[in-house]
Amino acid sequence: MTKDQGRVAIGAASGIVAMILLVWALSAVIGAPTIPDTAADRLAYALRWAVPPALTLFAMIAAVGNQRFFSEAIDPTRGKESEKMIVNGRVADNTTQQFLLFLVGILALSVSLPIARMGIIAAIAITFVIVRIAFWIGYRIKPVYRAFGFASTAYLNLGMLIAALWLWLG
């Protein structure tokens, strides 16, 4: 295993552990919402919690747009992007992909969870924002340091999708 592979493995493993602990801690303090127990109200609750992650994605897209506006890279066909802009673009691209999975997972969970456990929706949304920012910071420091945020987000999404499927089939 190379030094970089070791860093990625440690970053990924610690990201997954941190994500699990964060979701657990937040869901322990965030109570169930006081909403009617209907599919429409559950979906509306989840969609409101999708806004902070969407704003995080918007910030990433805006960072690229602003960098383009104030540089020679204003014309994206000229290949004048800085290293910072390339990294921010990749962060925005990956966050778009992760957000799609997040949105499907959070909506599916919202109609599958027992109403008393709906606080986990908020915990997951907050965690998504935190680990996506960690992904961005890590990527900007050194690309291999993105593993913490990438793995924590990817496994958060996988966990939601598996849980929603399990609850649906159960």
Biggest sheet architecture? none
Can you write the helix and strand succession as a string?
HHHHH
Low-confidence stretches: none
* Strand composition percent: under 5%
Approximate helicity band? over 70%
* Outline type: globular
Q: C-alpha Rg, in Å?
A: 18 Å
* Number of distinct beta strands: 0
What is the oligomeric state here?
A: single chain
In short:
It contains five helices and no strands.
Describe this structure in words.
It is a single chain. This protein is mainly alpha-helical. The protein has helices spanning 3-29, 39-69, 83-110, 119-141, 147-169. It contains 5 helices and no strands.
Outline the fold blueprint.
Elements: H1 3-29, H2 39-69, H3 83-110, H4 119-141, H5 147-169
Helix pairs in contact: 1-4, 1-5, 2-3, 2-4, 3-4, 3-5, 4-5
For the structure shown, list the relevant keywords.
170 residues; mainly alpha; 0% strand; globular
